[in-house]
Amino acid sequence: MIPAGDNTMNPSAVRSGGEILVRQLMINGVRRVFMVAGESFLPCIDSLYAHRDEISTVSFRQEGGAAYAAEAHGKLTGEPGICFVTRGPGATNASIGVHTAYQDGTPMILFVGQIGSDTVERDCFQEVDYRRMFGSMSKWVASIDRTDRIPEYIARAFQVARSGRPGPVVLALPEDVLWGQASVPDVLPGARAHAHPAPAEITRLAELLAQAERPFMIVGGAGWTDEALAKMRGFAERFDLPVGVSWRRLECFDNRHPNFAGHVGYGMDRKLAKRMEDSDLLLAVCTRLDEPTTEGYVHVTSPVPRQTLVHIHPDPNELGRVYRAELAMVADPTGFSTAVTSLSPKATPRWAGAARTANGEYQATLKPGPMPGETNLAEISASLRDRLPKDACITLGAGNFALFPHRFLQFSGLGTQASPVCGAMGYGLPGAIAAKLAFPERVVICYAGDGCFQMTMQELGTAAQSKLGIVILVFNNGMWGTIRQHQEREYPARVFGLSLTNPDFATLVRAYGGHGETVAQTPDFMPAFERALAFAERESMPALIEVQYDPNGITPDTTLAAVRDAALARASA
User: Fold this and answer.
1) Among residues 528, 510, 509, 526, which one has the least CA distance to residue 518?
2) What is the reported pLDDT for 121?
3) In this structure, are residues 539 and 469 in contact, taking their beta carbons and an 8 Å threshold?
């Protein structure tokens, strides 16, 4: 952060819009930006060059990858990920990262180069109305139309992106504003506000806990800190609460903790789903009870749940959106975790031992089962669980392959996992790039399916150019697996439009100067992984293992053949 005595605080200093903007980023603690260059924001690029020792700029091959990386940075660090893209096509490419940040509650700021103010509304070259385009998938969209207001807009952008339920902000940058000059003081960062429950709400929570017989707590959402997570662990321990994490928020509670009950969402263990259904008090802490977490709003019915629901969330608009809660609190992770430090049971809870039972059921799910073919993805993930350091960071895209690391890996806390809650494909590789830049000392592993990987595989060039020693696991079954499962369930034996003719992924990464291997049998995986990790750490370059497996092994619990046979039996009944 720039000290207050720096000459940037001098209102008499005349600076370009690009210089004012980049200095404002530095004041807000930004040390890295993700970018695909464009002529529409050249003054910003020139200022980034001038301050290249203070802010590193990571150049991506496509704006979708840059926006994904910015989102992953926000998710992993809690600080807004910063992305610069050009107007029109650049902004539309980057929209996938903005949508991910919005649905996932991730702090992010997207800067979009824009046409000059003198040509607005002429449908000129690459003109887009960004307020209309991004209005429904961001917390705030604006165009900075005066050079002397840049500090005001940037200060507000950081405040909005971080506050309440975090999310993305989109700011358009007209060319004339960036090229323009102004004498204007910078704006220092504002204090971060935290929403706290009212004392009466905490009293009511204590009453509901005293009345409960089968409580269950789900932790998730964004905005957590290590301190807040530690306080939630203490709360769970004092009340002997079984704790699940919401869909793709596995970093929100230590998976090795004796109170951990499992990952609540698509593909969850049936005992865990029943525990949630049968609970008489459901504590949803800073998480949305969204479609994946409830498996289609089944285990928690809308609008009135069968469970007594206590819903804590930093966004008041989320409370009551889908479910009527017996007790609704507007609070963020810091505010709620601090408030419950005052709570302790007055007697041994009547559900004593439930956490131990739930954890035992979770532990049973960690044992790999059989899979068709020569490669068992469950065994591979279980072997990685035993091999990786606890602070390793795993990034995942979307697809059925992700069910295996979700089930068999274990995550210890913040910064150990990043995946798109919204299910956007292509996330894993840009996410791994952001993770390795944020945590260069950590082991960073990307999980990707063959289809998922090919949506952003050009970012191998970014990883190689940035000298990043990441390990990429590409799980190749030659098809769009998730859609195949749905197709077999709804239209059995009528498979269409789902096969993939893939490149030799191992050869591809070698073309970028990395290390590549192909594995087609389970025993061959760990030796290949050790070689890949050693290369990545020694050479600071990406390594990739293509894992070929039988497409019939669609999830940890079923096969495509079983899905198809069940659908055919229903059709003939």
Assistant:
1) 528
2) 67
3) yes
User: Smallest Cα–Cα separation from 434: which of 56, 96, 110, 44?
Assistant: 56
CA separation for the pair 541, 509 (Å, rounded): 10
> Is 112:85 a contact under the CB 8 Å cutoff?
yes
- CA torsion, points 420, 423, 424, 425, in degrees to nearest 10? 100
What average pLDDT is seen over the chain?
A: 95
The DSSP element (H or E) to which 15 belongs, if any, is strand 14-16
Cis peptide preceding 303, ω within 30 of 0: yes
Beta carbons of 96 and 67 less than 8 angstroms apart? yes
Side chain identity at 178, as an amino acid letter? Answer: L
Contact status, residue 332 vs residue 162, Cβ threshold 8 Å: no
Query: The whole model's pTM is what?
Result: 0.95
Cα–Cα distance, 73 to 127 (Å, whole number): 29
What's residue 127's pLDDT? Answer: 67
**Nearest Cα to 338, choosing from 221, 217, 194, 163?**
194
Q: What are phi and psi of 89, to 5 degrees?
A: -55, -35
Rg (CA), the chain: 24
Token pair of 460 as six digits:
């191998």
- 56 pLDDT band (50/70/90 cuts)? very high
